[in-house]
Amino acid sequence: MTSRLHFHALILLLSAAAGCSFNPPARDLPSAPVAVSLTPAVMQPAAAVITSDGLLAHIRALSSDAFEGRAPGGRGEALTVDYLTQQFKNLGLAPGNPDGSYRQRVPMVGTTATAAMQFSVGGKTIALHSPDDFVAFSALTQAEVRVDHSNLIFVGYGVTAPEFGWDDYKGADLRGKTLVMLINDPPLPDPANPAQLDPAMFGGTAMTYYGRWTYKYEMAARTGAAAAIIVHETKPAAYPYDVVRNSWSREIFFTRNEGVNPGYPPVPAWITVERAKELFAASGLDFYEQKAAALSRNFKPVALAATASIDVHNAMRQIDSSNVIGRIEGSDPVLRDEYVIYSAHWDHLGFDPTLPGERTRQIYHGAIDNASGVATMLEIAKAYKALPTPPRRTVLFIATTSEEQGLLGAQYYAQHPLYPLQKTLVDINIDGINPYGRTSDLVITGPGKSSADDVVRRVAARQGRTIAPEPFPENGSFYRADQFEFAKAGIPGIYAKSGSTFIGKPPGYGRERSRHYVANAYHKVDDVIDPSWDLSGAVEDARLLFEAGVEIAEGEAWPAWLGGAEFQRVQPSH
Asked: Bridge partners of 48?
């Protein structure tokens, strides 16, 4: 896979600041002989303690009305953190923070934005309604952020990628402007087969980080733009506008950063494609013609005959959220100072008292996203405690906060690690499970980046399963979950789930279920336990991730980034 400029540049900068690219640390002493070799025959009885009932009990508790949707900074967080802390204690896990607690404090600012937006075109005003037409917010910790009659500039996909010979900005002076940009990365036809996407450009069918909204806001901030408006389209975004509305029209969180957040322009925003088409038409342009023109390397920013005025009022509060961390100390006196991480985010979207209906219909329960992932991590921890001896390396279980706000808990740990990153072998991330039964295949999200994939393949083969291609590579799922933040810090990740070939189900069943979940439950109040769930596949996946982690925690070889990956290990200078 071709390296991506901004990751590659970021990692090179980190490497230069930190010292050099990483090799596993030299050890003064040999590791101790293995008292009990944790072979598959030894692991599998321990894996058997992972059960459907165990998963369901945790999901039921965490997604219940009492937990209020598990938003950071409120009663839902307090109950969740207490629940996880007690579960870690019940399992016999040691406190994961070296200060003797199970918590890592994550300082954040909670912001509830009230926004108004209008466009001025030829003396006429196009008024937009929040949140049905747009959402806008600000990461600046100030009560009001205003953009006044800022010139609107269409910047295509908003991508600068020299390795692909691509630059949508062409050196334009965009300071103080409001940028309008498309979601995802440029879907360029293959010259040899125009019906397919060019595999040599932007990952072909697989979305790269250039397609993520986070990247687009980062680039807008670098240009000095006053605002950046992403045009939402369901297919390239991989989710309906309801997800945008539900995610950004409530209290949102940012890590505290002395009044500025370099990853955002002063006002980031989204707009529906319907209102974008209206804006372009009022400016004498056809939206889809301009979108097609943006598929050329020769594209240059297009000034719309319009200005934007945006007013954001912020109600702010400071909170200390928590990553919740348990630890199983390694059995080897030398290797116990090296680490394998399991991660799963505990947070979701909270509740919205303005929604109609009874209280339970106002709660974003997040049963799949991500009570199920946390439940899986707890069951995996239970399996580790069922081993006759701990693995040689220390295993950390990190329930992260604020993934829904932009992977903030994982990002904070990666920037403020409790254990040395240069001694951390891998992050095994769990975000959502398969509740529809067993599959004969498994999907590695973001395959081909590291040798950790080989461990997953071996364990899958022991289960009699094959590795299938990602069913929706255009979604860019690797860049949308916590293992991405660990990857940016140089730590290879495993993010693997059930495939789409369900045993005893007709072809296409898995894809249909996935689409149904995204359309009807993802980031909605209907992400709840369904009595028809069959968690046998989720159990099999959990057992696989358990065995993969044990193999890495026991083994001699460290997972390594493969050639062409946009990441590399870094270590502090000496």
From this structure: none
